[in-house]
Specification:
The complex is a heterodimer of chains A (136) and B (304). By secondary structure, chain A is mainly alpha-helical. Chain A is 54% helix and 6% strand. Chain A has a two-stranded antiparallel sheet. In chain A, a hairpin with a 3-residue loop joins strand 1 and strand 2. Chain B has 304 residues and is an alpha/beta fold. Chain B contains 11 helices and 15 strands. In chain B, strands 6-7-8-3-9-10 form a 6-stranded mixed β-sheet, sandwiched between helices. In chain B, helix 3 runs antiparallel to helix 4. The longest helix of chain B has 16 residues. Chain B is elongated, with a radius of gyration of 23 Å. The chains are: A mainly alpha (136), B alpha/beta (304). At the A-B interface, helix 1, helix 2 and helix 3 of A face helix 5, helix 6, helix 7, strand 14 and helix 9 of B.
């Protein structure tokens, strides 16, 4: 599991947000499965060479967002409760990506119809009946 | 427990203040990065913390208590300047530390030295600058100290050994100890430190959690249809720190509320609006050297 996490400390994106984003993505993709244990704060801090308090902050936020749960003395796990974490997180990631794209399209001055045309074409390309493998 | 609290520290040499009303707090189990240009007062601050320079005024407390002879057992220090004895071998320095500090672990020191690739049989005079740094770092981290004060602990080290020092720092924080360190390598501070203070001419000009500074500080950029545009008083917003205008493009350095300020920019007729993230180096440069950070600067007063 730690192998799938990397952070870029030189980016302008706060490190704790990078960790949150990557754990969510791993959960959405099933790389981290419901009930699976995450590395301890200390272990992940050492693996990534980042401050332990920064990792702890990411874990706290992931807990608050009901992606993971922490059992005192046992560690942190991907949540297994009635709301399946994986599909819910996948929806969140997809929504954020589309929001970002629409904001950018609006910022460069496209109108609703132009955006709709682009969106329909893209939808057609990525979601036609035959899936094209792992669409990035 | 291993907290450090510096309140209103001032150190005056002759008539020049090297440290001027500096306050900062390092909680237990945390890593604090001290950034600043050369001569900003970092080393003087460290010397005052260690009792190597007498503060002109102000207070430095460790877990609420001032520095006392017994504190030295708990505090490990890596000075910026080489303080090793040229005529002694590395092994002899390890032995010196063993005699000086009760909790010093010679086996750990030798293990660290070998990880850094230092030949422990050599005389210090035969070591490169980086290897001398490695000796000081190895001895400091073998002290089992609760507080580590590290002045440029990666000076002269190659990238592999620099990363090793960062791992050691993180390991200390994970054990519940506290580290305060300075480095000109901002990328290292960005990685290992949870909190930073940027000091310039002896004063703290910016401090906070690295992640919060990154989350809050943004450049909001917009393009106006015409060269003669008005910002409708956006520049007077206290969160707008700087305004740079180049032809039809305006860039605002904001300390918070990037989304809201972007919306106001849009309302005043700008398009192509985006918020750009800043890394710690950008934040540092804007703080200590606004002029080199950008060109064509219009101050807030002139543009509003």
């Amino acid at each position: 599991m730690p192998a799938v996490l990397t952070v870029d400390p030189r980016s302008g994106v706060p490190i704790y947000l990078q960790i949150i984003e990557q754990v969510k993505r791993s959960v959405a993709l099933g790389v981290l499965r419901a009930g699976e244990q995450l590395p301890t704060v200390k272990q992940l801090a050492i693996d990534l060479t980042v401050n332990p308090n920064t990792v702890a902050r990411a874990y706290r936020e992931l807990e608050r967002e009901a992606v993971i749960e922490t059992a005192t003395g046992r560690g942190s796990f991907v949540r297994t409760d009635e709301v399946e974490a994986s599909p819910r997180v996948a929806v969140e990631i997809g929504r954020d990506a589309i929001e970002l794209a629409l904001r950018e399209a609006k910022a460069v001055g496209l109108d609703r119809d132009e955006v709709r045309a682009i969106f329909e074409a893209a939808l057609e390309r990525w979601f036609s009946e035959l899936p094209k493998g792992d669409s990035q | 427990m291993s907290s450090i609290k510096i309140s209103n520290l001032r150190k005056i040499y002759g008539s020049t203040p090297a440290v001027d009303d500096l306050s900062l707090e390092v909680p237990s189990a945390s890593v604090f990065g001290l950034l600043g240009p050369n001569g900003a007062g970092k080393t003087t601050t460290f010397k005052c913390m260690l009792g190597l320079a007498r503060p002109s005024s102000g207070e430095i407390l460790y877990d609420g208590k001032p520095l006392a002879p017994e504190s030295f057992e708990r505090i490990a220090y890596v000075p910026e300047r080489n303080v090793l004895y040229d005529w002694l071998t590395v092994d002899e320095h390890v032995e010196m530390n063993r005699r000086a500090f009760r909790a010093f672990d010679p086996a750990r020191a030798r293990e660290l030295l070998s990880q850094f690739g230092v030949d422990h049989r050599k005389r210090v005079s035969a070591l490169s600058k980086g290897m001398r740094t490695a000796v000081m770092v190895a001895c400091a981290f073998a002290r089992n100290a609760e507080i580590l004060v590290l002045d440029e602990p990666t000076g002269g080290l190659d990238p592999v050994n620099q990363r090793h020092v960062l791992s050691l720092i993180i390991n200390e924080a994970a054990k519940g100890n506290s580290v305060i360190f300075s480095s000109h390598q901002i990328g290292q501070v960005e990685r290992a430190a949870e909190m930073i203070a940027i000091i310039d001419r002896g004063k703290v000009i910016l401090s906070g959690l690295v992640d919060d500074l990154k989350a809050d500080r943004k450049i909001v950029e917009g393009i106006f249809p015409d060269v003669a545009f008005s910002l409708d008083g956006i520049a007077n917003d206290p969160r707008v720190l700087r305004v740079d205008r180049t032809e039809r493009i305006v860039r605002l350095l904001v300390t918070a509320g990037a989304g809201e300020i972007a919306a106001r920019l849009s309302a005043s007729g700008a398009t192509g609006i985006r918020a750009l993230d800043l890394n710690l180096e950008d934040i540092f440069l804007y703080a200590v050297s606004p002029v080199t950070a950008t060109t064509d600067i219009v101050t807030k007063e002139q543009s509003s």
